[in-house]
Amino acid sequence: xxxxxxxxxxxxxxAGSTAACAxxxxxxxxxxxxxxxxxxxxxxxxASEIRKVARDGDWILTRSYYAVSDGIVVFTPGEDLxxxxxFDAKRDTIIESIESGVREMPLEQLVGRNHYVIVVRxxxxxxxxxxxxxxRARSVLGAPYDIGGMFGxxxxxKYYCSELVFWASQTEARSGRHETVVTPSDLMKYGEVxxxxxxRDDRQVMxxxxxxxxxxxxxxxxxxP
Length: 225
Fold this sequence. Notes:
The chain is built from ten helices and six strands, in the order H-H-H-E-H-E-E-E-H-E-H-H-H-E-H-H.
């Protein structure tokens, strides 16, 4: 049953890998807030909070609003996570692997596409170790996506999302544990949670975000071109 479940989720990953760019189809299990102002405020709040606690090389694990993510969280044991990336605190970006390959993008853009965000600090790594891991991930920007690796047929020089994070942090060498296939939820075994955002549609999260959002006065509004 475990093998079948993992096969199903990896099949879903392979079949839906383009969802990260196409934004369709959407999840049927989680929904964005209808209040667009609150939704935008939450993105800014979470990005701000992550900047305060995270450092170079921390892992950012997320649950997105794509239908393929539903398959991943349903069939993958552990936390309901669908994607993994690595944080660059100095550039305020993340490095991730999607169907188009390994790329860099703004932190806030990653946060904005997700239902919740978890920041994990890998076990047994100093800040210097993590900086080296980040440099390793950065060195393969543009590398192809590893579809075969999700089925246990790893291709050197190619990476799927959690494989990239696992490899760049040299997690196998540090832990002494081999993972034929590593999912986003598997990464939770190799680190400590230092930040949990809460769910985007949680009432308390929405109220907190909107209460902290800067307010534009009538004078400021009138002064804008």
